[in-house]
Description:
It is built from nine helices and eight strands. It has helices spanning 17-26, 42-52, 80-97, 114-134, 156-166, 177-183, 187-194, 220-229, 251-255; strands at 2-6, 31-34, 55-60, 101-103, 137-140, 171-176, 198-203, 235-238. An eight-stranded parallel β-barrel has the order 1-2-3-4-5-6-7-8, surrounded by five helices. Strand 5, helix 5 (156-166) and strand 6 (171-176) form a beta-alpha-beta unit. Helix 1 runs parallel beside helix 2 and helix 3 runs parallel beside helix 4. The chain is globular.
Amino acid sequence: MKFCANLAFMFTETSSILERYALARDAGFKAVETGFPFGHTLQAVKQAKENAGIEQVLINLLTGDVTKGELGVTAVPGKENEFQSNLNYTIEFAKAVNAKKIHIMAGKLETVTAKNWETYENNLKYAANKLNEVNILGVIEPINQHSVPNYFLSNYEKAIEIIKRIGSPNIRLMLDIFHLQQICGDITHNIKKFMPYVGHIQIAQVPNRNEPDTPGEINYEYVLKQVEFYGYDDWIGLEYKPANSTKDGLKWIESFGYKL
């Protein structure tokens, strides 16, 4: 079992994502995942990652102004050129830090029509071709409506249908157990059902999004064994908010029988 630190949620004791690369290394992590590093140049991000001597697993797609709640335009008709520009820009960042996965965020929409689904799928087809050229995996993630109201993709079955129709090895599912529990539950059976389409996994406790061993709805000692049993052997992103300090909160890894 391999765990990578999510730098959007962990080590926020410091304000700069650039500093968090070294903090993750010092805590024992060998790899990280990040949101898009807004406000930092490609060279600065690459330097921070290389100075830390740590692997970058995944980076989020450039989404627009997150302070305004913008989480992508993948499903927005009329913004196809913006989507393509954002994707191409993110690919350059991914190549610079040698990240092999990009999380393609869908966007937030108050009203959803068939045109949105058509646009979303067409944009993902474009992404599949571009990502195939550079050997990078695109992952799409259903996000629950409690955490992000009006997020476009909040249905696992629809996500799988689209992945099947596109039929590309470069578009896969991001299975975040935190969202899975709140969208449809039935975790064990759904891990088994969705695993053939999974490209990345993330975890956090429900409902407070803290460490896996904090009080909540999910028995992660059991769930992680199911993830392993059904064949996942890639990185698992720790996309949780530490209840206290990030480093103190990592004790669960050893208590569950794992190590960084």
